[in-house]
Write a structure and sequence with these properties.
By secondary structure, the protein is α+β, with helices and mostly antiparallel strands. Helix content is 22%, strand content 28%. It is globular, with a radius of gyration of 16 Å. It starts with a strand and ends with a helix.
């Protein structure tokens, strides 16, 4: 039986830096050379500028599928950010699976660590500012090319070039694309029953469970 997997093209970390006016951001991340420690808070050396909205148990590690980069390059030809991993502020640049084939609660190997899918990435204004465009956020919401977050289940060490193999899939009916559509893309209006189900799923990040509770009413 074939075990689904992704191939890690790069692992990336960043530190807060001036971004817009008084705002700081760690969205500009650079690849790590060699092994990197994976702790409960994510990749060693990675920091966040806004701990209220970024980082923490449910947002320890951000993955953006490199499978989407060709699609973005077609829409933004020649954009310098799209020539290498890290355009979307991801910690893991991996290919082989996307939001359509990665499910909520999936557990993957990450080197000797184990990580669990906690929710999709809700885009914010920082992506538009980073790209120097006004349509990146809206395009992600419309198309569901959002990326996702992991929580760390077992600490370990990983490096680029390794495979992330699927270990467990408890919720095969809940790909991240579906969760994102329901909670961020407006799908709740036509399917409040499914949204109510999400509100009762402990594996879903608390912030998105609270959002599901509000949208299911």
């Amino acid at each position: 039986m074939h075990t689904p997997f992704m191939t890690v093209d790069a692992l990336l970390v960043g530190k807060p830096a001036p971004f817009r006016g008084p705002d700081y951001s760690a969205i500009a991340k650079t690849p790590v050379t060699g092994p990197v420690r994976i702790g409960w808070g994510g990749l060693e050396g990675d920091q966040v500028a806004d701990p209220i909205h970024h980082g923490g148990w449910d947002k320890a590690i951000h993955l953006y599928p490199q499978d989407h980069y060709a699609w973005w390059r077609d829409r933004k030809p020649g954009h310098p950010l799209l020539g290498a991993p890290g355009a979307f502020g991801e910690n893991i640049a991996a290919r082989g699976m996307t939001e359509e084939t990665i499910c909520l609660g999936d557990r993957f190997t990450l080197g000797s660590a184990i990580v669990e899918v906690s929710h999709g990435r809700q885009p914010c204004w920082k992506l538009d500012h980073r790209f120097g465009a006004r349509d990146v956020l809206a395009t992600i919401v419309k198309t569901g090319r959002c990326g996702l977050y992991f929580r760390v289940i077992r600490e370990g060490e990983a490096q680029a070039g390794e495979r992330m193999a699927l270990l467990d899939r408890p919720l095969p009916d809940w790909p991240i694309a579906r969760v994102f559509h329901l909670l961020i893309g407006g799908g709740h209006k036509a399917d409040r029953a499914s949204v109510a189900q999400l509100a009762d799923m402990p594996v879903l990040a608390e912030a998105w469970r609270e959002r599901a509770r509000r949208l299911s009413i």
